[in-house]
Specification:
By secondary structure, this protein is an alpha+beta fold. It has six helices and seven strands; from the N terminus they run αααβαββαββαββ. The strands form two sheets. A five-stranded mixed sheet has the order 2-4-5-7-6, with helices on one face. Helix 1 runs antiparallel to helix 3, helix 3 crosses helix 4 and helix 5 runs antiparallel to helix 6. The longest helix is centred in the N-terminal third of the chain and has 23 residues. The protein starts with a helix and ends in a 5-residue tail after the last strand.
Length: 202
């Protein structure tokens, strides 16, 4: 029962952290500008925005693991929205050797969002985020890497918000699949590694 309470609490906190007015406002503003400049791209951005919100809402009521493909779809929708914003200029690289496995909902996407919003804060040019998956004999590995300046490159407020998000994801991984979260920060960026045990697939 305690684990269920922890999971429920973490899901609500993570959900509230994901639906941020600033991001919603920026996305809608970018879409508004695209309506006049590029109607086709504006239509695609509306689709991505709807997909992003639906992914967050679905995660609130999700009590089971979802396919990595589904989480990846949510990530792609988020990245598309960020890159539609003229104020954002970064490269997103997908290095996915394996995709046929399951993860807790909203466990990878928030890590990608952290990398974009906080990790690349110090990168005015050539910002890069890499999403990587690998498979070992005992587990699946998911890595989210950025080329920012690590935790030293963000403000105290950003650090506190980031820590809340990381702890919520850590709880969800532990409770739902006995997974774990590993974080390494340096002046060359942050590497977040998610470990998903294979023995719990069934």
């Amino acid at each position: 029962m305690q684990k269920e309470v922890e999971l429920s609490d973490s899901k609500v906190k993570l959900m509230m952290g994901q639906i941020q007015p600033h991001f919603i406002f920026n996305s809608l503003q970018a879409i508004q500008e695209l309506c006049a400049e590029n109607p086709e791209k504006a239509e695609q951005s509306v689709h991505d925005f709807s997909k992003y919100l639906r992914g967050n809402l679905d995660a609130l009521s999700c009590t089971h693991l979802i396919t990595f493909e589904k989480e990846l779809s949510h990530i792609r929708a988020y990245i598309a929205l960020e890159q539609a914003d003229p104020g954002r200029n970064f490269e997103m690289i997908y290095d996915l050797e394996v995709k046929d496995f399951k993860v807790p909902a909203l466990s990878v996407q928030p890590m990608v969002e952290n990398a974009v919003r906080h990790g690349l804060t110090s990168c005015r040019e050539n910002g890069r985020v890499i999403l990587q998956t690998r498979e070992t004999e005992k587990e699946y590995l998911i890595r989210v890497m950025d080329n920012g300046k690590g935790f030293k490159g963000i403000t105290q407020k950003q650090k506190e918000r980031q820590q809340v998000g990381l702890e919520n994801v850590r709880t969800r991984l532990e409770v739902q699949c006995r997974g774990r979260l590993e974080i390494k920060s340096s002046d060359r960026g942050v590497v977040v590694t998610i470990h998903i045990p294979k023995m719990l697939e069934d």
